[in-house]
């Protein structure tokens, strides 16, 4: 009995030790789980950051593609505008050529009128001279003048009336043509003004869109160059001609002033030279 009790006590001690060891195992398991959970959370956070970075890169790529498409669309629009401007310039040249031809026709018509007037005057003067010669011959011969002059004068008056009618018709035609030209010029000026206003509106719209989209400074510089080119193209040939005339006038006035100054200087030098010669002689 004593032996059994001793064994039971020893076994009880062993059970207590086992329980203590079990508690240590539980603590170890908790620590391992905590360490593994922290690592998993860190990995999860890292993965979330990487996913956010990837999304940002995708958005940047999409924005770049959109900006590229917009740039291509802007280039196409610019090309279309250039083509329209070239067509308008060609139309303007054609209209100018038509105006020149009309002016030439008017000048030719006026010359023809002058020539017809001169010819009529020559004919009238010739007929009158012939009549006066016949009268003087009749007087010298002692004959009375026959009644042939009255018939000639009536024919001459008919011709004169016909010439006046023809001149009136021609003047009416010329006036109508001038009125038509004035109307055409006014319409062309109105069209040009409308096109210029539309271009300015388009340019303002483009600038607003660029500011809203937030394009870079490089694109703004490119647009500034295009605007300068556009402004140079917008300048009409008439304005350029006026500027050149003004510059020529100014240059001519400067040249005249310089010539006057040089002449004065030469005169002074000659006077001074003559004075020096006289002093030498004295």
From TrEMBL:
Coiled coil, from the record: none
* Region (Disordered) location: 1-282
Which regions are flagged for Basic and acidic residues bias?
1-28, 79-156, 173-213, 224-242, 250-282
Bias category Basic residues: which stretches? 157-172
Q: What is the name of this protein?
A: 8043_t:CDS:1
**Native source organism of the sequence:** Acaulospora morrowiae
């Amino acid at each position: 009995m004593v032996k059994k009790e001793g064994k039971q006590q020893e076994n009880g001690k062993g059970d207590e030790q086992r329980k203590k060891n079990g508690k240590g195992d539980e603590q170890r398991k908790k620590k391992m789980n905590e360490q593994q959970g922290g690592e998993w959370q860190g990995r999860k956070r890292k993965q979330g950051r990487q996913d956010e970075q990837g999304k940002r890169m995708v958005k940047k790529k999409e924005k770049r593609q959109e900006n590229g498409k917009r740039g291509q669309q802007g280039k196409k629009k610019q090309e279309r505008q250039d083509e329209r401007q070239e067509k308008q310039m060609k139309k303007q040249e054609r209209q100018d050529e038509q105006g020149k031809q009309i002016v030439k026709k008017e000048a030719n018509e006026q010359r023809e009128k002058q020539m017809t007037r001169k010819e009529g005057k020559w004919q009238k003067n010739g007929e009158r001279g012939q009549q006066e010669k016949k009268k003087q011959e009749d007087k010298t011969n002692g004959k009375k003048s026959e009644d042939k002059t009255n018939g000639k004068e009536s024919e001459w008056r008919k011709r004169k009336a016909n010439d006046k009618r023809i001149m009136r018709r021609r003047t009416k035609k010329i006036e109508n043509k001038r009125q038509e030209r004035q109307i055409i010029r006014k319409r062309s000026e109105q069209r040009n003004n409308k096109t210029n206003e539309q271009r300015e509106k388009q340019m303002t719209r483009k600038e607003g869109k660029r500011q809203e989209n937030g394009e870079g400074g490089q694109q703004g510089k490119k647009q500034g160059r295009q605007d300068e080119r556009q402004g140079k193209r917008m300048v009409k040939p008439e304005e350029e001609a006026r500027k050149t005339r003004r510059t020529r006038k100014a240059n001519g006035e400067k040249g005249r002033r310089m010539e006057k100054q040089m002449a004065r200087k030469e005169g002074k030098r000659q006077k001074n030279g003559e004075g020096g010669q006289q002093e030498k002689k004295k």
